Amino acid sequence: MFFWIVLILLFNIDSNAQSFSGTWGYQISGKEITLYGDKISNLNYGGHTGTLKVALYATSFPYSGGTINGYKLYEMRLNSLDAGYSYNDISNTGYCSYPPSGYYYLTILLLEYNYSYEIVDYISLNGYEKF
Known about the structure:
The chain is mainly beta. The protein has a single domain, classed as Immunoglobulin-like (Sandwich), CATH 2.60.40. The chain contains one helix and eight strands; from the N terminus they run αββββββββ. The N terminus is likely disordered.
């Protein structure tokens, strides 16, 4: 029984080893968007992550985990991150893909490539935005 519990704990630690911290947000001006944040950390004890992406999504309902169904407004790509290291003061500006007119909840996703891109952390922003 103890062995089984240890395996579950190790799996949970490894599955959430990349994470956002600090303040994250965005600014849209016309067709341009700036996505910014304080920190992305790799909390693993060895190795490195796959390629990382940070993306902003607009959804009809607040996102609370799992598969996301919505419109990708913007994404930025980051190189892999060695264990124990962080990206700090992240900011990138590019073209914003607008969703159809309406009100949307916004979520910032951290994705890691592991044969395909998988969501490893997210921040659901408060309230909704009109587009």
